[in-house]
From TrEMBL:
This is Uncharacterized protein. Residues 11-187 form the Spore germination protein N-terminal domain. It is a lipid-anchor. Keywords: Germination, Lipoprotein, Membrane, Palmitate, Signal. Its main location: membrane. InterPro entries: GerAC_N, Spore_GerAC-like, Spore_GerAC-like_C, Spore_GerAC_C_sf. One of its GO terms (biological process) is spore germination. It comes from Peribacillus muralis. Belongs to the GerABKC lipoprotein family. It holds the Pfam family Spore_GerAC. Residues 205-368 form the Spore germination GerAC-like C-terminal domain. It is found in: Membrane.
Length: 384
């Protein structure tokens, strides 16, 4: 009688033998070497339910510690770091990668190559650039979450800034424009009386790249238009002042559809950007009755002009930096492949000098259950 042999999981690794990485940062030292820092779970802290403070623990009983080492490249730094960690470093749960500012300015291609070749890092992990060293972001102990990597990931999930993954980054670097935009983060200093490390990481702008090198930045205000152009606006509010009216009105954008139409007319490269956006009123501090069509049109017109102003500010900054992060090169290549191939080497100049027209349509789809401003007498409400 034949007895089939049953093989076991000869290469299995128990979870108790893993050092689970939740976030990582990559910095460049003064001597040109690469510093890799990883944020690792502390299993003892999890099983004990989280205690008070202590090294690597935040106000709510944080469950991570930060380990670092240096090498001539990222691969060597990881190899040396593994020698300092008694468990096998596991990247499968790493949600956040932070490039230090100096490294970003000198080039991230080699580091990205390692992260994409390694079988464990997830391509949907989020990527950021830090103001200063990335390691400082990992070492912060935010009071509202158990570790800083979770804070940063939550900000991206809430679309408080650009949402860029490793996969997105690789796609942008190999696109026709080879321009990249990454969320820029720094630490909000702790309030008076809080521990030094209890700062909160937050997104305060956007880092612009040409190929793999950071060439400039955009402030939060300048980058707002980029969220419209990429249809990534979900968690912020637009506050407006209708012309000739007292008070302010706040609108939450609920959808945005963007269509870019490339044009080459008599040798001139142009682009028409069409945006159709809808919003909902979340606060009305004016005396306008939004149930009246004339009043609603006033608000929609103000909303449209505000969106157009934000996008023009963003485009002005992008063209000044020669950073086509909105993908105009791809649109021209699709429609005019021969013309683009001939002009591809001169694309940066073409993009800088290009005339970009705007066509913004804005609608208020939800005025709220209260049509008339709360707290006002009937005779105080304006019908138009």
């Amino acid at each position: 009688m034949a007895i089939p042999s049953i093989t076991g999981c000869w290469d299995r690794v128990e979870i108790n033998d893993l050092a689970i990485v939740t976030a990582a940062s990559i910095d460049k030292k003064d001597n040109g070497s690469i510093e890799l820092s990883i944020q690792v779970f502390i299993p003892k802290s999890i099983s004990s339910g989280g205690g008070g403070g202590g090294p690597g623990q935040g106000a709510g009983g944080a469950t991570t510690l930060v380990k670092s080492d240096v090498g001539s490249n990222l691969s060597e730094a990881l190899s040396k770091l593994q020698g300092k960690v008694p468990r096998k470093v596991f990247w499968g749960h790493c949600k956040v990668f932070v490039f230090g500012e100096r490294l970003a300015k000198e080039g991230i291609q080699e580091q990205l190559d390692f992260l994409l070749r390694h079988p464990q890092p997830r391509e949907r992990a989020n990527v950021y650039v830090s103001k200063g060293k990335g390691k400082a972001i990992l070492e912060s102990l935010p009071p509202l979450e158990v570790y800083s990597g979770e804070v940063i990931k939550e900000l991206s999930d809430l679309h408080m800034g650009l949402h860029v993954t490793l996969h997105n980054l690789a796609e942008m670097l190999t696109s026709k424009s080879q321009a990249v935009a990454l969320p820029l983060i720094k630490i909000l200093p702790p309030a008076k009386g809080e521990a030094k490390l209890q700062g909160i990481p937050y997104i305060f702008g956007t880092a612009l790249f040409k190929k793999d090198k950071m060439t400039g930045t955009m402030t939060e205000n300048e980058a707002r238009g980029l969220l419209w152009l990429k249809a990534e606006l979900e968690s912020y509010t637009v506050t407006l002042k209708p012309e000739g009216m007292e008070g302010l009105i706040s609108i939450k954008p609920i959808s945005s559809h963007v269509h870019i139409i490339p044009q080459i007319v008599n040798g001139n490269w142009k682009a028409l950007v069409k945006i159709d956006t809808d919003g909902t009123v979340i606060q009305n501090g004016t005396k306008l009755n939004l149930s009246v069509p004339e009043s609603l049109k006033i608000v929609e017109h103000t909303y449209q002009k505000d969106v157009e102003k934000r996008i023009r500010l963003t485009l002005l900054h992008l063209q000044g930096n020669g950073a086509d992060v909105i993908g105009l090169a791809k649109e021209f290549y699709r429609k005019y492949p021969n013309e683009f191939s001939e002009a591809e080497n001169d694309w940066k100049r073409i993009f800088k000098d290009m005339e970009v027209e705007m066509d913004v349509t804005a609608h208020i789809r939800r005025q709220g259950y209260i049509n008339k401003t709360g707290g006002l007498q009937e005779e105080e409400v304006k019908e138009r």
